[in-house]
Amino acid sequence: MTAKAYTVTRTITAPPQVVWDLLTDPSSYQEWNPAVLSIEGAMSPGGTIRLVSIASPERTFSLTVAAMQAPVSMVWSDGMPLGLFRGVRTYRLDPAGSGTAFSMTEEFSGPLAGLITKAIPDLTESFNQFADGLKAAAEKATRT
Fold first, then answer.
1. Angle at 52 between CA 71 and CA 35, to 5 degrees
2. CB 68 within 8 A of CB 44
3. Which CATH class is domain 2-143?
4. How does pLDDT run across 95-120, given as a tens digit for each residue?
5. pLDDT averaged over the chain?
6. Nearest C-alpha neighbor of 73 from the set 47, 104, 39, 97
7. For the chain, what are the domain ranges?
8. Minimal CA–CA distance to 14: which of 74, 90, 101?
9. Are 64 and 78 in contact (CB under 8 A)?
10. pTM for this prediction
11. What is the distance between the alpha carbons of residues 139 and 133, in angstroms, rounded to a whole number?
């Protein structure tokens, strides 16, 4: 059962591979992603990412790249033992005409999700900043 979820979508006038290259390159995030204060780690299946977001700047999230299918989807996850609480972020890129339909969804679930999500800040603004930054960077890269 999902206790809370956030989703953002954008149509990006750039090929999926261009969007994918930005999305999977943590060293480029500082250039295009105002929602992320810092990110490091391996964006590869089973890799660990350490992320600090504007939504919770005092906390470093340690995330696992749970799944990856280039250039279509990537899933990050973290949580508590025994499935008591779990956060799963899914990125999806689909061809859309001459561009890309991008979506990012974060779902929180588990028996403690109702309680824990009360302490999680609203992610709507940081999701919008993420998607807008990715869109701008991918479209700029396509024009140059």
1. 65
2. yes
3. alpha beta
4. 999 899 999 999 999 999 989 998 88
5. 94
6. 104
7. 2-143
8. 101
9. yes
10. 0.93
11. 10
